[in-house]
């Protein structure tokens, strides 16, 4: 079963988050961004993926997840796990 969305967990002021956001926006990929400082459940998701740390950006696409991935990594994961989400 394929994923229905790309979720990017971030926090304000994170330069890596800003870089990934810019790359994904430039690619035209739609994604949902969640601020882990405003959403305790989201922070818990990140900790469960990042060995107990709140390392962002953390990206989730269905069963696939990555901590601090590049734009290329995210687009490759979308192509593999949710190709219907790729920009036209």
CATH class: Alpha Beta
CATH structural fold name: Glutaredoxin
CATH architecture field: 3-Layer(aba) Sandwich
Output mean pLDDT.
Answer: 95
Annotated CATH homologous superfamily? Glutaredoxin
- Cα distance spanning the termini: 21 Å
Q: How much beta, percentage-wise?
A: 15-25%
Helix percent band: 25-40%
**Strand neighbour order, sheet with most strands:** 2-1-3-4
Number of domains: 1
Supply the helix-strand structural class.
alpha+beta
Shape estimate: globular
Order of SSEs, N→C?
Answer: EHEHEEH
Q: Helical region count?
A: 3
Number of strands: 4
Largest sheet: 4 strands, mixed
The radius of gyration over CA amounts to: 12 Å
What are the low-pLDDT stretches, counting only 5+ consecutive residues below 50? none
Summarize the structure in words.
This is NrdH-redoxin. InterPro entries: Glutaredoxin, Glutaredoxin_subgr, Grx-like_ET, Thioredoxin-like_sf. One of its GO terms (molecular function) is electron transfer activity. Pfam families: Glutaredoxin. Residues 6-63 form the Glutaredoxin domain. The model has no long low-confidence stretch (mean pLDDT 95). Strands 2-1-3-4 form a 4-stranded mixed β-sheet, with helices on both faces. The protein is an alpha+beta fold and 88 residues long. The protein has one domain: Glutaredoxin (3-Layer(aba) Sandwich), CATH 3.40.30.10. Helix content is 39%, strand content 18%. The chain has helices at residues 15-27, 40-49, 71-81; strands at 7-10, 32-35, 58-61, 64-67.
């Amino acid at each position: 079963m394929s994923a229905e969305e790309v979720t990017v967990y971030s926090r304000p002021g994170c330069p890596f988050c800003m870089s990934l956001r810019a790359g994904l926006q430039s690619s035209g990929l739609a994604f949902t961004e969640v601020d882990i400082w405003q959403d305790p459940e989201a922070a818990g998701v990140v900790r469960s993926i990042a060995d107990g740390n709140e390392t962002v950006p953390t990206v989730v696409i269905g069963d696939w997840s990555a901590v601090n991935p590049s734009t290329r990594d995210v687009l490759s994961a979308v192509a593999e796990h949710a190709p219907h989400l790729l920009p036209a």
